[in-house]
Amino acid sequence: MLLVGGAVLGAMAVGVLIGLFQTRFLISFKAIRFDLNRINPVQGFKRLFSLRSVFELLKALIKVVIVGYIGYSAFKGEWKKMLDYPMMFPQDAAAHMVGVIFSIVIKSGIALLALAIFDYFFQRWEYEKSLRMTKQEVKEEMKDIEGNPEVKRRQRQMMMEILRSRMMQEVPKATVVITNPTHVAVAVKYDREEDEVPTVVAKGKDKLAEKIKEIAREYNIPIVRNPPLAWELYERVELGEEIPPDLYRAVAEVLVYIYSLRQEV
Question: From CA 265, how far away is CA 253, in angstroms rounded?
Fold first, then answer.
């Protein structure tokens, strides 16, 4: 019994060490706490027939089969000699039995160690896989980080409305509005005493262009038809920016025309 007990305790110690290595020496007492959900039949059936429980059952069966086969093979080879135990000295019989048991323990230990190593990497892979987010979870997280697309669209719309409102407030300060004449309107401001270069204070297409021209008529701002220049200013110059040097001459001709009209009046 002492010999068998030592072998069993050794196997238990190896099992505990393997478990500690698998969990990286993480010890938790949560598993032994009293929990009514553990005796819940419904939850019990779910755990019993879950994919995880089936895998653990297969793993346990594999262990039993391995140890059983190793034990059977060891006893099968020594069976005839074991039948002679009654005619042998007790010391010789015990020594032979210890050898057989030691052989079984060593072979079983090697086999179970190989299985434990495989199980360790499998458990680690499964754990890392469980931490991955689904596509839906990624979408939800992106919504939380970047905001809901509908909310962002509404925010952009509100910002555009604010910019348009500010832009329309700048139209009365313009010197001239250059048009396509129906599709594009660009309001240009130039004060010889304050500005070095003309700047674009408002621009728009279609309905927005009509609104710019409507405000220009209301404040008696000249509207000049020049399609090529209107498109160039609309596409190349942002609000509040100065006109590029290559358009100086074209804009200057429009301003000279405006100033000549004012002098005639």
Answer: 19
> 93-108 pLDDT, tens per residue?
888 888 888 888 888 8
Residues near 14 by Cβ (< 8 Å), separated by ≥ 6? Answer: 109, 112, 113
Give residues with Cβ within 8 angstroms of 109, minimum separation 6. 11, 14
Query: Other C-beta atoms within 10 Å of 218: how many?
Result: 10
**Cut 0.85: pTM above it:** no
Alpha carbon distance 78, 73 (integer Å) = 9
Cβ 170 vs Cβ 204: under 8 Å: no
Q: What is the DSSP string of 37-71?
A: GGG-HHHHHHHHTSHHHHHHHHHHHHHHHHHHHHH
Annotated domain spans of the chain: 36-132, 171-264
In terms of CATH, what superfamily is 171-264? secretion proteins EscU (3.40.1690.10)
Residues 70-84 have pLDDT tens digits of 888 888 888 888 888
DSSP secondary structure letter of residue 174: -
pLDDT digits (tens, 9 = 90+) for 192-236: 888 888 999 999 888 888 988 998 989 888 999 999 999 999 999
d(CA 88, CA 180): 119
- Counting Cβ atoms within 10 Å, is residue 203 exposed (0-12), middle (13-18) or buried (19+)? buried
Integer Rg of the chain from CA: 44
Residues lower than pLDDT 70 in the chain: 31, 37-38, 41-51, 143-149, 151, 262-265
